[in-house]
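User: I'm putting together notes for a lab meeting next week and I want to include a structural view of one of the chains we've been expressing. I don't have a solved structure, so I'd like a prediction I can at least talk through. The sequence is below, exactly as it appears in our construct file.
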Amino acid sequence: MKTTNKIFAETYNKNFNDVLCFIRTYVNCVDVAQDIATDTFLSLYNNLDKYATKNGTFKPILLTIAKNKVKDYFKLKKDNVNIEDIHISTFGDYDPIVSNETTSHIWKHINRLNERQKQLIILYIEGYSYKEICHMLQIPMGTVTTGISRAKSKLAEYLKDVDMVNI
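Assistant: Thanks for the context. Below is the predicted structure for the 167-residue chain, given as C-alpha cells.
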C-alpha cells in the first residue's frame, strides 16, 4: 500500500493545475488563486484519512474543498472591504500625474451615485470581475451588471463636460 505522502504527492501533481483553473474562474488574482489552491491541498492533506475514495481519485473532493475555500475567501473579503479605503488608481486610463483636483472631481461625482451603485462602481474600478463582485456582495449577477452599467452611464453623464468619459 502506498504511503500517505506518496498518495498526496501524486494527487497534487495530477490535480493542482485543474484546481487552480477552477479557482481562477472565480478569482481574478493569480496570487490569491494560488493561495487558495495551496490551502485546498493542505486541507486535503490534513484530512486525507477522511477522504478515502474507492477509485483513488480525489478530484471531486478537491473541487468541493476549493469551492468552499473560495466562498470563505469572498466572505472574508466582504467583511474587510471598506469603501473609503478603496483607491481610484485604476480609473480608466489612469495617469499618475493627474492632479488631486481631478481625482477629487471624480470622487465628487462617484459620491453622487446611490450607495449600491457607488459600491459596485468602486469595486469595478478597482479591477474586480463581475463574478468576484457578485460573490463578494452576495447578490445576483444581473444586479451587478445592471448596477455597474447604470453607474457608468450616470458617471459618463456627470463627467461629459470634463472629457473623462472613458469609463
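A couple of points you could mention at the meeting. DSSP finds seven helices and no strands in the chain. The domain at 4-80 is CATH 1.10.1740 (Rna Polymerase Sigma Factor; Chain: A).

User: Perfect, that's what I needed.
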